[in-house]
Amino acid sequence: MLSKLSERPRDLLNSGRATYDAMGASKAQIVADIAGSPHQRDGVFANLEPSRQVENGGGAALEMARRGRTGSPRRPIPLLPVDSPAEPAELAATWLGHATALLEVDGARIITDPVFSQRCSPSPILGPARMHPMPCAVADLPPIDVVLVSHDHYDHLDMPSVIDLAGRFPDAQFVTPIGVGAHLRRWGIDGDRIHQADWGQRITVGDIAFDACSARHFSGRALRRNTTLWASWAIAGPRHNAFFTGDTGYTDAYIDHGAAHGPFQLTLVPIGAYSPMWPDIHTNPEEAVRIHRALGGDRPADSVLLPIHWATFNLATHEWDDPVRRLRAAADGLTVYTPKPGGRIDVVARTGPGTTDQQWWEAVG
Question: CATH second-level architecture of 8-363?
Answer without folding.
Answer: 4-Layer Sandwich (3.60)
